[in-house]
Amino acid sequence: MHKKLLEQVYNTSNFNANGHELIDQLTSHLEDKLNGNSRNTIQWNNPANELQFWKDFLKNGDSKNLFQEINQRTTHIHHPNYLGHQVSPPAPITALTSLLSSLLNNGTAVYEMGMSSNAIERIIIEFICDKIGFNDIADGFLTSGGTLANLTAILSARKAVSKKNVWRDGSQNQLGIMVSEEAHYCVDRAARIMGLGNQGIIKVPVTNEYNINTDLLDSKLKEAQQKGIEVFAIIGSAPSTATGIFDDLEYIAKFAKEHSIWFHVDGAHGGAGIFSKKYRHTLNGIQHADSVVIDGHKMMMMPALTTALLFKDESNAKATFSQKADYLLSDSEHEDWYNSGKRTFECTKNMMGIHWFTLLKLYGEEVFDANVTLLYDLGSLFADIIEAEPNFELALRPMSNIVCFRYVLPNLNIDEQNGVNIKIRQQLLEDGEFYIVQTKLKNVHFLRITVMNPFTTEEHFKALITKIKALALH
Fold this sequence. Notes:
alpha/beta, 11 strands, 44% helix
């Protein structure tokens, strides 16, 4: 009985039939969404109703409709009206590399379980390090997302800089990092996971342009040291998630070098700008970083999750998780790059390097330049349109494809004005034609778009503004 059920699970004819049917469905989905043929980006449903639908489907739904139902009841990021979170509409070829990775299921912790993927990852890491401007002693690896990569980088910084060996002896004194108050929340989370607490997260205020106020770095460092905090790292945002604004990486690099602390760049979103001839300048100074994070699933057309963590010095890449696992990892006199489990938080990860390698092989690095440059250009175009519209206000001129703006009515106080924009955003969500998000900057509520789809045009932007006007007056 058990054997028969398992034979059904692994039936290759069923796999072939289901696979062809799904590819046909996804092809139709792409053709429809990329061309904006269907109206909605999202079919909004409240959480309780959605949960009930899937409970009922598990009991009574037709399994033949499973994939189609999942597709219909989700957010369609390939639609040009998708202007929400920093998630890339994946290049269709990467759906196939994901399929390959999922079916082969070769982890990359040890070479014997991931020969091709370890070698491919090595090539990709060397390629990205070269684009950053690191020399030939740089190294790194791919890991599952910016949150994990940032945590790993800060752990590496602690091991490299701290006067005490926390990995071996545990915490002996109060440690700290410096970071912009607008940095991504995962940096704060990483610091707390490491036990730094409130005291150990030294948040530096931002300027009126929302980048880290470099004039305050010396005083903030001195203030922390006077409290007995050993500051071992400073993080530069490239860019801040909420605003899309880049910190002055060149200045931070000089500051870090002067005070002998680790310089980490959180380039999860904007680090892909290293490929853009037009926007490379936003990352000036990144070549001086001790570590850099770049997400493939944000600006590089790959499925989630795949993130590159790069180190200026390969010794730091290898030392973070130094320990012995006799049954897996043998000692070696040379640097065994092919056993990536020695360097990553994960012992098992998917064959994510094949996404990067396939795009590079099929389209060349120019495809990354094309995508980043076009999306940043579109962010600037949207800002131009907003500035020309009465009753609309930019938070600030964008440096990337992230744009914060709001609808403004005369004679309203700040709370009333915030309420108008909160209502607009909720109405947009429930209407479903467009999907955008929101943020709060210095107690002011802003609508926020991130242009992630290269097929979004000026006409889509104008249609969004028309929709917002109608909702605001409703």
